[in-house]
């Protein structure tokens, strides 16, 4: 059998900026990993094993590979998972990693890793010089840069359909970067640009937009463009009443910021005191996740709207000895769960503290589950 070893290419002096080396990927998208690796008790001066049957595999040094940031999930590098894998193996294992999937670009004379970016990261962190790879496709000189990216993206999609899938948000970004957008994704881009926000690759450029969001394309579209959504607002009203406050108070989490926007647009009578509350220690004292944790299933936005209104009203009542929020201000209340309706009525009409109601609800649910499971 032929000894494969390495494919020698004549690398172009001009390579598009979206093709970068693994060291640059780490520096740009996961800089914390360089410090993290120093704390781990693992082998850091090479792999823990040898490449098996190396005479019958393509081999190359890791810094000769390129990653296409337009096609790969560079925003979803999970440091905790990389750490877990390295600790479990005691370092980088060729046996576990297998061969990287590589496309050869004849146009630029480079090897592009289309599946194996995380493995390449682990190899770099552990001081591994050489890894095995398999050639999946040759990209011809006639292909445009966009055609190359689409080809890589389609390959990664096919791999992910069989293995761990990309998140919807990251797939949206990759589709846009590769020029492979659906009509709905084109609508995302148009609406977010008009709103002046950035949502993982869509809308205004990230370095120009405030606020900026790492995910939730669909919820933001429902908020700004879908008139049938329970939390829809007109785009002009968002720009007029919500955009500037979000610049100041945004959490970069749609499950909190969309509810804040909805309240500022739809409940005009409390807008000014609500804005003042957002600037208080009382509001900042809540953990961000609290606003939607254990809320209505699949309806985190509506859950947060209700809790924001109730918490704001409770603070106002404690300060001024009277309520300011009314039940009818929650326009979608009749579409919510019985628990959510009860929360609103108890907080706003019966003056019961929101924490007491949620604790009762949790205790009731625990009791119900214990009964179902037959636990004394």
Shape by Cα distribution: elongated
What's the alpha carbon Rg, rounded to whole Å?
Answer: 26 Å
- Separate helix tally: 16
Strand order of the largest sheet: 1-3-5-4-6-2
Give the CA-CA distance, first to last residue: 68 Å
The average pLDDT score comes to 86
Percent of residues in beta strands:
5-15%
Unreliable spans? 363-375
Secondary-structure element order, N to C: EHHEEHHEEHEHHHEEEHHHHHHHH
Number of strands: 9
Overall number of domains:
2
Share of helical residues: 40-55%
Content-based structural category:
alpha/beta
Most strands sheet: 6 strands, mixed
Oligomer: single chain
Could you characterize the architecture of this molecule?
The protein is α/β, with parallel strands linked by helices. The protein folds into 2 domains: 19-177, no CATH class; 188-373, no CATH class. Helix content is 48%, strand content 10%. The protein is built from 16 helices and 9 strands. The chain has helices at residues 22-29, 32-39, 79-89, 94-97, 117-125, 145-162, 168-177, 183-195, 217-224, 235-249, 254-266, 271-278, 281-284, 300-320, 338-348, 354-373; strands spanning 19-20, 58-61, 65-68, 100-105, 110-115, 130-139, 198-199, 202-203, 212-213. The strands form 2 sheets. A 6-stranded mixed sheet has the order 1-3-5-4-6-2. Strand 4 and strand 5 (110-115) form a beta hairpin. The longest helix has 21 residues, at 300-320. The protein is elongated and about 80 Å long.
